[in-house]
Inverse folding.
């Protein structure tokens, strides 16, 4: 196997043909040798004359010869196939380590030394996820950058609770995981940088479950803090606009270019009796005649600062309204805001009475009025 003659091997020091790891294993065994020692199985490698190595899966035992000398018996099985398989696995592991460490996507893996019992109630599972003993077993450089770890701080040695804490948002996140059997994409959570600053995270999670026990879970995370902050600002503005529209005394109707209703305010419902759910998403033509404009004027959606009159059908009948319309200044699909103000018909004015030029009759005979002569 080693490519050396028997005469060369006999009497030679065995470690001279072994690699460094084999030398260490042999030395450890010699130091602890005993007559009644139990056999051990170890992988060993010996160099051939051509510079390659022979891999053995060796069983080593100690015994005493007739002269009570301590001896070691080594029975080696050709281990080239297993060694090749291990070398292949080591290559793959090294490749995966490189991919993970150099990835721009933050990756992590968490392992529970106290497994989570998934047979428990949802509330009990949530509690275990945050309280059972666990630790990081993998966090790449992108993960460290995302959580702002200082140079020289090893993420794996940090407590999980420093970054993934129990709060209402994360409890909701874990409940989503439970419903998805700990296999989910784009699930939100609220976590903390090394400095304690809050960040919004979007998670993709996978897990290793044996029976009813969650042993470990891993995944990727994406920082969506800027997106969430922008979303919060937009939501606040939307609430503000909604409150303003709700407080306006004039009836407001919002339509798209196809005349579909996409918004109304309470004053519209009150003025015309239509509930929002009855008209939203529908063509408003049966309710408001948008085409009833004066001759020579553009279509209803044409830009204009003027006002015009049209009829609005309420639940009680037709109502004459003064209309103003304005486009919503956005780059998306055109939308138009209509302000509708009912016009009450003015009561007819009484004609002013004219004074009679005749005096009342005296004794039944009419008396004509006399005027002084005009001066010459």
């Amino acid at each position: 196997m080693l490519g050396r003659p028997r005469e060369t091997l006999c009497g030679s020091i065995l470690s001279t043909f072994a690699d460094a790891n084999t030398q260490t294993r042999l030395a450890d065994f010699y130091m602890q040798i005993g007559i009644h020692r139990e056999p051990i199985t170890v992988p060993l490698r010996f160099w051939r004359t051509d510079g390659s190595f022979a891999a053995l899966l060796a069983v080593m035992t100690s015994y005493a010869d007739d002269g009570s000398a301590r001896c070691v018996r080594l029975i080696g099985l050709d281990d080239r196939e297993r060694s090749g398989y291990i070398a292949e696995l080591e290559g793959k592991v090294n490749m995966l380590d490189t991919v993970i460490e150099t990835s721009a996507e933050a990756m992590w893996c968490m392992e529970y030394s106290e497994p989570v019992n998934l047979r428990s109630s949802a509330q009990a599972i949530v509690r275990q996820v945050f309280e059972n003993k666990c630790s990081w077993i993998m966090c790449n450089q992108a993960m460290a950058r995302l959580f702002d770890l200082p140079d020289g701080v090893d993420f794996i040695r940090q407590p999980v609770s420093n970054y993934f804490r129990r709060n209402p948002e994360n409890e909701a996140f874990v409940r989503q995981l439970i419903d998805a059997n700990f296999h989910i994409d784009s699930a939100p959570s609220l976590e903390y940088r090394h400095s304690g600053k809050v960040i919004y995270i979007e998670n993709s999670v996978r897990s290793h479950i044996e029976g009813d026990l969650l042993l470990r879970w891993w995944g990727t995370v994406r920082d969506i803090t800027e997106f969430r902050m922008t979303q919060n600002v937009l939501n606040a503005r939307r609430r503000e606009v909604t409150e303003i529209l709700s407080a306006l005394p004039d009836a407001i109707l919002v339509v798209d270019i196809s005349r579909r209703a996409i918004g109304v305010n309470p004053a519209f419902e009150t003025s015309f009796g239509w509930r929002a759910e009855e008209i939203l998403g529908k063509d408003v033509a049966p309710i408001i005649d948008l085409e009833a404009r004066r001759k020579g004027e553009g279509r209803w959606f044409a830009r204009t600062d003027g006002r015009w009159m049209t009829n609005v059908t309420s639940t009680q009948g037709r109502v004459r309204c003064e209309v103003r319309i304005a486009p919503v200044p956005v780059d998306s699909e055109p939308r138009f805001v209509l302000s509708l103000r009912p016009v009450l018909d003015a009561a007819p004015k009484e004609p002013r009475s004219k004074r009679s030029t005749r005096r009342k009759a005296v004794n039944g005979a009419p008396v004509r009025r006399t005027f002084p002569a005009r001066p010459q």
Notes: The chain has three domains: 6-84, 103-227, 248-342.
